[in-house]
Amino acid sequence: MEVKVLQLLEGAKDARGLTVIIDVFRAFSTACYTFDCGVNRIFPIGDINLAYRLKEENPDFVLIGERNEQKPPGFDFGNSPSQLISGNLKGKTVVHTTSSGTQGIVNAVNADEIITGSFVNAGAIVKYIQHKQPEMVSLVCMGYACEYPTDEDTLCAEYIKNELEGISNNFQKMVEIIRNGSGARFFDPEKQSWSPKADFELCLDLNRFNFVLKVEKGEGLNYLMRIDS
Questions:
Q1: pLDDT surpassing 80 at residue 60
Q2: Three-state SS across 47-111?
Q3: In the beta sheet, which residues pair with residue 113?
Q4: Secondary element (H or E) of residue 127
Q5: What are the beta bridge partners of residue 137?
Q6: Which positions ≥6 away from 17 have C-beta within 8 Å?
């Protein structure tokens, strides 16, 4: 098994084999929490205008997402796990659009299959890959708004790669690096309304969920399907 770590949109476009699109802060951590809240389906959408149109055509759909970290006008929730876990989402269909993670899914056109990546289900991701035994694994770190690499996504890829290759991880050291690096924004008092400290903690709750989220095609749109380990 060859495991490659790739970065940003170019990495998504170059991804081959079983591809993991990683967005720790916060798209694919949020997606896991959303499924844990009992949603029926998540449509990961790159184009925010398509998201609005889907909501207009399907008023019962729930809009979740962000642009520039903040909840867009008319959305039901921002891209914040701490703010949606108290919502009534059971049985709902969610449209999820973000600046990084969902863009990666849209651009990974050469992948054999796509699953999402985050720390909250990293163990399940490793088990899934070990079970599938693909020749090629592409770990794509989506970074900040697809503009530059971030500590949390790169370290998540490193964590998964190490686990697959039998190399021990020091997760607490990783958390410290993230806390002092790209995760510092979650501790900025001026950003608590859209990037609360609680999101940092929820997104780094290692192996909280024992399922993977696989991208499937249907109804003309990609959707995420929960696969329990």
A1: yes
A2: CHHHHHHHHHHCCCCEEEECECCECCCCCCECCCHHHHCCCCCCCCEEEEECCCHHHHHHHCCCC
A3: 18
A4: helix 122-132
A5: 3, 18
A6: 2, 111, 112, 134, 135, 136, 137, 138
Q: Which amino acid is at 19?
A: T
pLDDT-based confidence at 217, cuts 50/70/90?
confident
Please give the Cα distance from 119 to 113 (Å, whole number): 20
Q: 150-204 pLDDT, tens per residue?
A: 999 999 999 999 999 999 999 999 999 999 999 999 999 999 999 999 999 999 9
The Cα-based distances of 228 to 35, 126, 212 in angstroms read 11, 13, 6
Angle (nearest 5°) at CA 144 between 9 and 74: 100
Q: Which two tokens stand for residue 151?
A: 């500590």
Beta strand pairing call for 93-97 and 113-117:
unpaired
**Confidence at 219, pLDDT banded by 50, 70, 90:** confident
Backbone angles phi, psi at 205, to 5 degrees: -85, 85
Hey, is 88 helix, strand or coil? coil
Phi, psi for residue 8 in degrees, rounded to 5: 60, -165
Q: Are 226 and 35 in contact (CB under 8 A)?
A: yes
- pLDDT at site 1: 96
pLDDT in tens, 63-89: 999 999 999 999 999 999 999 998 899
DSSP reduced 3-state for 31: helix
Give the pLDDT score at 220: 84
Cβ-proximal residues to 183 (8 Å cutoff; 6+ apart), any chain:
25, 151, 152, 200, 204
